[in-house]
Amino acid sequence: MLNKLKKHYKDSITTNFSHQTDYIWFITHTGEPFGIKKSILSDSELKLLSTMFENYKMHTSFSYTSVQQKWKEILSGEGTDDSIEFYRFIHFFSKQPVADYSAFSEAVNGLFPDDAVLLLNEDYLSGVIIETSKQDVNDTPYEALKDMLSTDFYIDLTIYIGSYNKGQNNAKQIYEREREQFLSIKNNLPPKSVYTAADSIPLLLLKDSSSPLIDALTGLLAEWIDEDQETLNSIKVFVECNMNISLAAKKLYIHRNSLQYRVEKFFDKTGIDVKQFKNALIFYMAILALEKNSNK
């Protein structure tokens, strides 16, 4: 329904919450808010839309704390703070707008340490959680955050964990670089709750690689492209599971002996022993290159 409305109203319809002035907002039956310019709506159209859809009121009234305001100024390049020693950006992207900021903020604050800082972008579809103290890996609540927001707010969230940084001199550049790099390869990533640099960097390397390098990588698996996709996929999962054959077999829903046979078969035909780290790395880059070419 929303796509049909977009075709009809074209530039006069928006889902961007930063466009508040002169728009009337509605919500579809599937929970998608949209706004239409008041100036182009006749009385009869407005009455029809109000009959078809509920009016939508956003809970956007909130004020930043002094710490949030400080970070907002830093990321916009308008401020500095030499007292900042450590930080990491947790970028998040949503398919649905965050309509109730207060409830969203309360949910995030309940999962993260008190010194974490939440900033929501003007599109209401993305933002960042700034960690200012290092957390143990097992204590990080990123998957819990995605699960909770999906359940309580019906928000389909994608989370990207940035790198550890010291000093805020380059904070703006780091924030923009991480965000732009992740968005540039986001559509090529497999479905996953939380992404890290380990997920994005291989694709970023391939994205900027020369044609000879791509050809060299895809050439390693040329004979397998049409012959045995099942084996290629099995070995990819095996590598992604850190060469743990039991874990990979479980994810593939096959017996570990079947996976062992596929790994040995692959070695016999290619000479690439993916049980060795360097060979596993080369194979993984080669399979990503193949997938990249197939998506063109």
Automatic annotation (TrEMBL):
Domain PucR C-terminal helix-turn-helix, first and last residues per copy: 232-289
Name under which the protein is recorded: PucR C-terminal helix-turn-helix domain-containing protein
High-level lineage: Bacteria, Bacillati, Bacillota, Bacilli, Bacillales
Transmembrane regions: none
